[in-house]
Amino acid sequence: MTSLHTRLSPDVYLDHLRAESARFRDVLAACDPAARVPACPDWDAADLLWHLATVQRWWTEVLTARPEQPEEIDPPRPEAYDDLVRAYDEWSAGLAAALDGADPQEEAWNWSDDHTVGFILRRQAHEALVHRVDAEQAAGVASELDPRLAADGVHECLDVMYGGMPPWGSWEPGDGLVRVDVTDTSESFWLRFGIFSGTDPDSGTSYADEEDFHVVPAPDDADVEPDVVVDGPAAALDLWLWNRGDDADISTAGDRDVLERFAAIVASPIN
């Protein structure tokens, strides 16, 4: 398996964003507004619809204002479900239009350390994918995940959602290596455990000696073996990491203590 990860092209991300957003819309338009969302138990289908609508609206505003961060103003939420669908249609189309033809290398504010349009494009393709799955689970239906997008989602989830670090933090690498193998796309991602510390300047919350992991390059020494190997198909891994699927199609092998440390981190909920 290759240890190098190649991101998808901007056109492919945009195609996936449009397709996943459309599927999300079609499923929820036919869904009971009161249906619960299994991965987000505080939400019903109407809440889920409003969530992605406002997320896509916000990132459209960010792209329009780039490179500055716009003022975040919460729009009023419609009461009628049909009006929620109409708001979603408008704002989802707006995001796709804002990204269509935009230079991925152009500067744009976002919460990561990658202040580019490309980061937003990639993140929103995966945001739409994960919430499409939420919509289907709420409606009791299912459809396939594209393996290449899902494999990229495994990398993004490990590298950004779990392994990302804010600029005010510091990270000291420690002991423990995990390799995640995506069996149907022949990609491998290496993770190293470490300790995160820092104080959030906005909330004032301080973190000290918190264990997490970062995605790291494969070791130069081919004889170096990971302490744990986690493997499975792209879709199964992506949904499992996002707490949207079980581990029935995922295999693990290696040091039990290291595996428990890995499992403790990826059990953290992300919406």
Main sheet record: 5 strands, mixed
Overall, the morphology is globular
Strand content: 15-25%
Task: Determine Rg (CA atoms, Å).
Answer: 19 Å
Overview of the structural elements:
By secondary structure, the protein is of the alpha+beta class. The protein contains seven helices and five strands. Helix 2 packs parallel to helix 3, helix 2 runs antiparallel to helix 4 and helix 5 packs parallel to helix 6. It starts with 9 loop residues before the first helix and ends in a 5-residue tail after the last helix.
Features:
271 residues, disordered N terminus, alpha+beta, globular, 5-stranded mixed β-sheet, 5 strands
Write the layout of secondary structure elements.
Blueprint: H1 10-29, H2 45-65, H3 81-99, H4 117-139, H5 147-162, E1 169-182, E2 187-199, E3 206-216, E4 228-232, H6 234-241, E5 251-254, H7 256-266
Helix pairs in contact: 1-3, 1-4, 2-3, 2-4, 5-6
